[in-house]
Amino acid sequence: MSELEHDGFLYRIASYQDGTLSATELSLLEQELREDPEKLKLFIQVQKTSVALTELLRQESFIERVVANELPEQASPSGKSLFALAMVIAASIAFFVFAGGRSKSLPPTAIAQWSSGHTDSSEHAVLTYANLASWSKSSVPVAGNLLRYRSSYSLEKGAARFELPSGAVVSVAAPTSFNILDGETINLNSGTMIARLPDSRCELKVHAGDMEIRDHGTAFGLTANENGKVNVAVFQGSVSAHVKPSDDQPAIEKVIKSGKSFSSDGKGTGLDEVPFDPKLYQDIWPLTIGIDEASSMIEFVAPPQNRDLKSLANNEKLFLVAERLGHYVNRNVGVDFFGAGQSWPASYPGRHKVGLGRTVSSYLLIYQPVAPEYGKPSSLSGSIRFQHEILGVAVNDAQLKKTDREFGLRGVDYETLMYRRLEDIDTEEGLLAADRLQISEDGHELTFQLNVGAGRDHIRILVDESEPEEKK
Questions:
Q1: For 20, 81, 295, 400, which has the most beta carbons within 10 A of its beta carbon?
Q2: pLDDT at 456
């Protein structure tokens, strides 16, 4: 854990203790504790210290009254007791500042907010991914994971993902410069971003050049050049694009639907349709839909190109299609799955179901050689890591068919896709080895070894996006 990560984590522990973490922040803290043993150990140490301090303060609660001369002299604590209490308080504060043998103190803003006993969660966005991100010195996120409103941020290397209080998920790729104006408004000065809104109740406005984009429950990409030229591409749903007119010209507004792309020249002259090219956003589309890391042979298919599953064929690549994102499960799917820490086909015991009342995102991983042939296997292996925990995977005929309707893409006829199950034993006269899967202990990573002969391999991955109250 770096010094910046260490300081930011202490800040989040303090916010957790005073009850000011939002549901998103609580989920992020839970994820950190599950994934990082070092952070879990630090959290336990801080909690133990806090409990001890609370108990001592309870026992010595009269100290404030002594200072205020509200207790009779005979009730006053001894000098020894006062000294012990002062030392515990000092030790507790020192622990927050120097825990883990680090000499660097918490950022001034974190100390001030911790001391005041609260943080204003309505005044920042929360970073949910920035592992390889490098920011300009003047725009480093507060406490390691908070982006403040009305502050300028410049991402110099890598990519980052953050979530606004409105629920909008936004990813940016370097080099990018932006401001978050409020809980549902962003100003993109230059660079590339994708925004995804989980439902129509969420709202987002993005200003870029002479354009304002209004979004209600959809997904779109945006690029802005320093010369003012802007491109917007809509992946799902539709957005309203408003161009600020030059001089006294009337406002220009268009509704841009899925699979369409428009650009403006930054001079207020209008919107021109341009070829839809999702490859402009290839690097951050998976980040936006909740995928943190993946092997290089996995290609992410952005909508609406994800509808023709039969065309996703390649001998050296797998394709990952986001099927249904943020889907609320309101019926019993009736299928057992295996989960965290289990492997396939070995881990048959301990399977579980995707529960009612959960919010789930589904992804389809496809390995489909161009010319599959009996007895001549093609093989690929790799891994993929998700932001949230994997609830289960569908791999055999029953699992795939029973989850097609609930979690599959609308308008796709899965019945026409033959021989798509994984094999749990060697087949094709022993020439085709069984497929292998493993879900990590923390439930976030899927490792695979896929072997295809005459058919294809489909894996439907169901990932938990429930709020903490839905998991109870």
A1: 400
A2: 93
> What pLDDT was estimated at residue 99?
36
One-character DSSP codes across 43-75? HHHHHHHHHHHHHHHHHTTTHHHHHTT-S-GGG
Q: With contact defined as beta carbons under 8 Å apart, do 362 and 460 qualify?
A: yes
**CA dist., res. 273 & res. 92, Å (int):** 61
Q: Quote the CA–CA distance of 323 and 362 in Å, as a whole number.
A: 5
DSSP string, 306-332: GG-GGG---SS-EEEEEEEEEEE--S-
Judged by average pLDDT, the poorest of 58-62, 97-101, 323-327, 396-400 is: 97-101
Determine the Cα–Cα distance for residues 305 and 194; give it in Å rounded to an integer.
Answer: 17
Residue 89 in contact with residue 56, Cβ under 8 Å? Answer: no
pLDDT tens digits, residue range 356-393?
Answer: 888 999 999 999 999 888 888 899 999 999 999 999 99
Cis bond upstream, residue 175 (ω within 30): yes
Radius of gyration of the chain (CA): 26
